[in-house]
Amino acid sequence: MISAPKICGRSHIRAGLSGYVAELIPAMLTAFLDGDRGFAKAREDARRGGR
Q1: Could you write out the DSSP letters of every residue in 1-51?
Q2: How confident is the chain (51 residues) per 10-residue block, as mean pLDDT?
Q3: Rg (CA), the chain
Q4: So what's the pLDDT on residue 40?
Q5: What Cα–Cα distance (Å) separates residue 16 from each residue in 19, 27, 30?
Q6: What is the pLDDT of residue 50?
Q7: How distant, in Å, are the alpha carbons of 7, 26, 31, 36 from that of 44?
Q8: The model's pTM
Q9: CA distance 16 to 29
Q10: Cα separation of 20 and 25, whole Å?
């Protein structure tokens, strides 16, 4: 009888972590860009108000 090799016990942790990171990076970039847009708009508004 031939048996399949067992998968390392930590492989599911790595798979879950890589999935988590894959979801986290776009969310962080979106939040950063939204915050950056808000900062740029506030800066532009302050510049226009100062003139």
Answers
A1: ---PPPPPTTHHHHHHHHHHHHHHHHHHHHHHHHHHHHHHHHHHHHHHHH-
A2: 62 78 89 82 81 51
A3: 23
A4: 78
A5: 5, 17, 22
A6: 57
A7: 56, 27, 20, 12
A8: 0.47
A9: 20
A10: 9
Tokens 């900062």 appear where? 39
Which two three-digit tokens encode residue 21? 């990171």
**Residue 43 corresponds to which amino acid?**
R
Of the chain, the end-to-end C-alpha distance in Å amounts to: 84
**Model pLDDT, residue 19:** 84
Residue with tokens 């950056």: 36
Distance, in Å, from the CA atom of 39 to the CA atom of 51, rounded to the nearest integer, reads 19
